[in-house]
Hints:
The chain is an all-alpha fold. It contains two helices and no strands.
Amino acid sequence: MFDNLREEASKPFYEEEEKFQPALGTTSDEPASPSRFLGMSSMQRFVIAVILMLAVCMIGSMALLVMGKIGF
């Protein structure tokens, strides 16, 4: 069972590894599209930014209420 362990460890895991080709659109030769960032369109980035802004505003308001800096 363990007779050829060192020989097997030195072999590549996939014997035909050099035959694999990269997936379409993942080659490093093509420049990245300027309209895509993190795989999102501009509208998706805008929605994420608005949600993040609302979360920060709500957390800040709650913190001010808890510390007694503002009150109703």
